Amino acid sequence: MTAASVHIYGPSFSNFVRTVMLVCEEKELAYSVGLEVAGKKVAFKSEQHLGLHPFGKIPVLLDKGLILPETASICRYLDTDKKLQPDKCLDFAKHDALCALISIDIDRVLVREYLLEFAFPKGENNSVRFDVVKEVQPKATATLAIIERMLGEESALAAKQFSIADALLAPILHYISCLPAGFNLLTDFPKVEKYLADLMTRPSCQKVLIAKKL
Fold first, then answer.
1. Predicted local confidence at residue 157, as pLDDT
2. How confident is the model at residue 213 (pLDDT cuts 50, 70, 90)?
3. For residue 48, what are the CA distances in angstroms to 16, 37, 42, 51, 124?
């Protein structure tokens, strides 16, 4: 990695923070990550955090005075030589649209509505509300079916070159693969399973996507 270092403000378990970490690994950029700024703790949603991101979201990239919010924008900024994005204008636009679909629609269902119940249970005594999980499962399954279809089409996913879209999707799918039997919905989607398995052969994914049961 290069001597220059960027800081990713946010917890390393966040799928979006992990996306930026993957891009840094692929670009061989030295980076630090955590809820600190200039060595001092900055509490989530605090006034200082809101100074970094007006809506108190993560991640935020800090680089030599630059304060840059929003995951996809951060990734495009870090990809200065455009190696993680298509060259041709039309392909670039399609990749950009795919990144938006993943970071907005796919993330909302698979992370915000499905995975977060396992990561931060809201049931009695911090237990998982399995009734809520089962209610969301059909929508999560339908979303994975969309990804399965995308993998069968010509898209930036599963291309020869690792892309920002891959960096956005990989942490989400990896977290689902860590769920217990009956909730790891990837087992019903062979193309998605193979896609994740192929990604996990990359050193960046092996380093960032730490196997952790939710």
1. 85
2. very low
3. 20, 9, 6, 5, 33
Contact predicate 213/178, CB 8 Å: yes
Residue 214 pLDDT > 50? no
CATH number of 89-208: 1.20.1050.10
pLDDT band (50, 70, 90) for residue 183: very high
Answer yes or no: pTM beyond 0.85. yes
DSSP state string for 23-82 = HHHHHT-EEEEESEETTEE--TTSHHHHHH-TT--S-EEEETTEEEESHHHHHHHH-TT-
Instruction: Calculate helix-pair angle for 130-151, 190-199, nearest 10 degrees.
Output: 80
Question: Beta strand pairing status for 30-34 and 5-9?
Answer: parallel
- Distance between terminal CA atoms of the chain? 31
Tokens of 8: 């990713």
Q: What's at 147, amino acid-wise?
A: I
> Residues with Cβ < 8 Å from 19, sequence gap 6 or more?
71, 75, 164, 167, 168, 170, 171
> What superfamily does domain 5-78 belong to in CATH?
Glutaredoxin (3.40.30.10)
The CA distance from 148 to 115, in Å, is: 19
**Mean of pLDDT over the chain:** 93
Q: Boundaries of CATH 1.20.1050.10 in the chain?
A: 89-208
